[in-house]
Amino acid sequence: MAKTVRPAFRCSECSWETGKWVGRCGECQAWGSVTEAAAPTTRTAASAVTTAAVRITEVSVSESAFRASGVPELDRVLGGGLVPGAAILLAGEPGVGKSTLLLEVAAQTAARSHRTLYVTGEESASQVRLRADRTGGVQDELYLAAETDLGAILTHIETVRPTLLVVDSVQTIGASGLEGVPGGVTQVKEVAAALIRVAKTRNITVVLVGHVTKDGSIAGPRVLEHLVDVVLHFEGDRNSRFRMVRAIKNRFGPVDEVGCFDLGPEGITAVTDPTGLFIENHHGRVSGTCVAVTMEGRRPLLAEVQALVTPSAMERPRRTTSGLDGSRIAMVLAVLQQHCGIRLHAHDVFASTVGGARLGEPASDLAVAVALASATFDNAPPAGVVAMGEIGLAGELRRVRDLPQRLAEAARLGFRMAVVPAGPSTPGGVRPTSTDRTIDGMRVIDAPDVASALRVLGVARPAKRALHGVDDG
């Protein structure tokens, strides 16, 4: 007997399929969107091709050459600039400066006699004009349109024939004739697919602004990130003017590059040397501070870590962090207690970074340990010193990537001493001892473990006095 094919059910929001009816979609969690899908009755037959297949050696790449956007830091992230026919998705939290950045890109592109169309679905054209007046982005070749209908946007593209199209944002645009509200899964997929089709057929660079959810991921269907060529994430702290653009996906360049910007009242400007934003200029040696060297993409950045240790009157002392991973701070405290004899179970610990920098790389563990030990014993480390290295649970220091680039950046900025992890252990399990060498005029000390690093910097024991109740072993 022929096997009976059970009818499939499909979600009208995200096209998720299931063999039985359910009240809630298992993919997008929408209620009442799962309906019975009609079984396909025909098969797709061969049809005429739009363009004939050619040898790859005969394909010209001149039409897809990089074009500068006028914002050097953005070109750095993109791999050289804007590519004609590329679809770029820029996502970020509300108020981080996405519209300001793209208006600057549109104005700089229009200033190079490239016609640009800026479509806004969240503001009126007059509001965008006011921001352009404030940031100096008024150009004759820059066209503004306030539209929320996909068909109207396609008409604007036919009329203006731009080189660059900016849509702010894709979640506010709706396509008539489709179910769902603008921003829904079906609407976002159709709007993005239509704009990407226009970008490929007319060789237009399309930049789409995307919203993010409360957990920081890009809102909408995951297929949106697969459709576009480049996915950029615009991030920054609201309490700081510093902003960073990070490439998550890039078909035309690397994905380990970041761009740095300064968001101010006059607009957004590129920051080619952002290290000075994260280092405090002290006039002398200050206890509880240490400078770490972290890698943001391919760019080494120096950031200062500050720590404060005070006796606690509570049964459970506080552990407060800002710009640092709280779980790694707890691990560093445990290593300091177990392997260095620094017991802080009765003290409040506060650790933060300067300038709103976020240090999530394990290479900043040693700088955190030096700052904590220095704050505990009120003993300042030597001036002009940087520390980098990942701390293991056994107290050892592990090697970090791109160490020559980190040392070269620290030497360029005038630091005279660096403490780095020593080489690997010998086959017999014997750890190497601390060694001293000179690189680019900077003294580099190789320390095998965190205890050796603290002793070399002179912060392992109190110089004059210790905090009341601190057991230094």
Automatic annotation (TrEMBL):
Keyword field: ATP-binding, DNA damage, DNA repair, DNA-binding, Hydrolase, Metal-binding, Nucleotide-binding, Stress response, Zinc, Zinc-finger
Residues annotated as binding ATP: G92, E93, P94, G95, V96, G97, K98, S99
Claim: Nucleotide-binding is one of the keywords in the record: yes
Any one of the GO CC terms: cytosol
GO molecular function: ATP binding; ATP-dependent DNA damage sensor activity; damaged DNA binding; hydrolase activity; zinc ion binding
UniProt GO BP: recombinational repair
Pfam families assigned to the protein according to its UniProt record, in alphabetical order: AAA_25, Zn_ribbon_LapB
UniProt cross-references to CDD domains, sorted A to Z: RadA_SMS_N (cd01121)
Region: Lon-protease-like, residue numbers: 348-473
Coiled coil regions, renumbered to chain: none
Record function comment: Plays a role in repairing double-strand DNA breaks, probably involving stabilizing or processing branched DNA or blocked replication forks.
Entry note about domains: The middle region has homology to RecA with ATPase motifs including the RadA KNRFG motif, while the C-terminus is homologous to Lon protease.
The protein, known as: DNA repair protein RadA
Species, as recorded: Nocardioides psychrotolerans
